[in-house]
Amino acid sequence: MKKHYFSTFELILLTLFSALVVVAKVALRFPVQVPGHSGLFWMAIVIVGAGIVPKLGTASLIGLSSGILAAFLGLGDFGALNTWLSYTMVGVGVELSLWLLQNPENVLVAALAGALGHTGKFLVKWVMGILTGAPLGFVALGLVWSLLNYLLWGALGGALGALTLRALRKAGFFAYLAEKR
Amino acid sequence: MSQRTRILIAGLIVVALVGVVLGVELLRRQAFTDELEPGSIPIYVRGKLIAAFLPTDLEQLTEVSFVDAEEGKTQQGWMLRDVLLLYLTPDALLNSDITVGSSSRGKTITLSWAEVDAVENMVMFDLAGRGTLKLVSKIPGFDIRDAWVQDVDRIDVER
Lengths: 181, 159
Fold this sequence. Notes:
The complex is a heterodimer of chains A (181) and B (159).
Chain A: H1 8-27, H2 39-52, H3 58-72, H4 80-101, H5 107-131, H6 142-170, H7 173-180
Chain B: H1 3-30, E1 41-45, E2 48-53, H2 55-58, E3 64-67, E4 74-79, H3 80-87, H4 90-93, E5 97-102, E6 107-112, H5 113-117, E7 124-127, E8 133-136, E9 154-158
Parallel strand pairs in B: 1-9
Antiparallel strand pairs in B: 1-2, 3-4, 4-7, 5-6, 5-9, 7-8
């Protein structure tokens, strides 16, 4: 029998993480009025997903499938394509970062991966804005403020993800998963 | 490659990304050849330019906010009525139609002055994440994201 790259169990896990990203985005409200603050839970979920299924393509798959879900649910201010690309780029950004940095249980590594992944979302919005001829920022430094917030909240989310992974390992979750696989 | 080198490379990538974004935005602002200030929003009355506002012009206005029913997010910024009243008298706006548009999105919305003036409608500009203005409101039918006008770059007042 042909062996698939992701097992059915892993695919179910990744789908659950994708759904969790969208549910968190819709349901969780963090009372901070700054751009990009949703990166706190978003990046944590993607990092945990990438840590639990440590294979190349995991984070991208979470990004891609959460993007499809979010686009169909009509999330985001700038249309379905923008939403889908943003979510996908978050996954691809984390993927590339973890490919370079590897160990997502290292807090610094996860923080950097979270920051880079979340910046992917910012870059999609920014590039799409330029491509569609969006006007120059009304606030000259608004874009810088926004970018710094994306980096910061992404890094915090990544660090939170690393701490969650450590806690899961301590609780024996990875041993349990090894049996299930 | 050591872990330290990898982290250093990732850090450099972050710095490079910030540099690219800042550099491109700076170039875009320098390449702006319009007679208006870069990023400013022009107001036209019957096709004639009467003003173009910038963030500094809005400092004297009170910021308002509401939580939208669609996603439960806080929309925060400046009322369109307050912005218009900075440059026009209430008499000049009476019985007028206000059209707010975005050329990049090909979207416009036309509202009567009465609708804009009604505080409970919360017809206001929210500052979007990428630094552009988005016209939002609580008016039924114009209270969802699909209807809101993102990347606003023009306001027209017609009687």
